[in-house]
Amino acid sequence: MTSAILRYPFPQPTGQSLPVLVRNEGVGYIVGMRIGNLNLSGQVLLAPLAGVSNRPFRVLAARAGATMTYTEMVSSEAIIREQEPTFAMMNFKQDEQPIGIQLFGSSPEVMCRAARITVERFHPDLIDINFGCPVKKVVNKNGGAAVLKDLGLTEAIIRAVVEGSGETPVSVKMRTGWDDCSPVFCEVGLISERVGAKAVTLHARSRARGYAGKADWGAIRKLRDTVGAIAVIGNGDIMTPQDARQVLEETGCDGVMLGRAALGNPFVFAQMRGFLERGEDIGEPTTIEKIDTARFHAQLMTEEFGPERGARMMRRYLGWYVKGFRGANDLRALLMQVTTVADIDRVFADYVRQNLDVEPSPTPVITGKPWQESQEN
Q: Which candidate in 133, 181, 186, 253 is catalytic?
């Protein structure tokens, strides 16, 4: 048996118009959404996550059912300077598509040039503008969520990126505002629509709140009621299939975007799509299935980044995969010391023998669930 490959278990986009939020005999939804000229097969998108959303992470999400993936945010200044490490972050392959490349910056001129270079060099399905990042090193340069303090600059940047992107659709990802006293998300939604963006994603917290407290899904409803023709995507505290359905039903948004829910958990995309589209509860993966998926993820990381660097980079993902395991703290401590895929396999093999009383497979075997498929010689 060869190493299994997670498959994309849902219909791929056909290029035809797709219905949106149509009830399927009271059970689920026949779903799809449109962002400008881009037709998507479903409503559950993977968020751009800084330091996380590399190719292996995106591949696993796409093959598990993510409707669309995004690169991690990239600097417009680095793009126009043609910095190779930045270009490496922007590379993608067909198995990650549809895909958006997310740009950040504070200069309309630079953002326009960066969008044009991105489209001409990489040909993504979409260009996304980051108005949501709360990190100090970004906002201190007037990027990310800091742009929301100046609606004139906000409009100029969106207009510039739309111009630079040509026929490629543009979306905007934002917070509700810089702080709770200055919500501007409805204004930004109207600006986005007026100057030619095709979608807005709202993380329903202000920059000042970071990730604290409960996301205000009512803000997503308000944004949906404010803008007319463009897509609205909800983001923030959408962790379960039930959360996804609640947000879609209560806010009327066109899709949901997952960030933290997908960490160590690509299965969530299949769970949500099964629930939304077919009314099915496909259940949770077993401990063995989680371990084998983590091992397969590690293989992808080393193929992408090299044996040593890939294994070191994989450590943080391994910590997410084993959340909730029996003896997770001790297991995580061992995984934080790995330097090769062989180390990862050895640590997991010892754990399986000691805690699950079975003999581990020599290679990852991913089988038995709707999001998975095994391949035999």
A: 133
Per-residue confidence (pLDDT) for residue 26, from 0 to 100: 40
Report the run of H or E that residue 266 belongs to, with start and end: none
- The verdict on pTM exceeding 0.85 is yes
SS (H, E, C) 41-97: CCCEEECCCCCCCCHHHHHHHHHHCCCCEECCCEEHHHHHCCCHHHHHHHCCCHHHC
Pairwise CA distance, residues 117 & 82, whole Å:
9
> Residue 273's closest CA among 44, 17, 35?
44
Q: Which residues of the chain have pLDDT under 70?
A: 1-31, 366-377
Is 133 known to be catalytic? Answer: yes
Residue with tokens 């084993």: 322
Taking the C-alpha atoms of residue 315 and residue 339, their distance in angstroms, rounded to an integer, is 9
In this structure, how many other beta carbons lie within 10 angstroms of the beta carbon of residue 91?
A: 14
Helices 307-321 and 287-305, packing angle to 10 deg: 150
- Which of 273, 207, 284, 285 has the alpha carbon at shortest distance from 45? 273
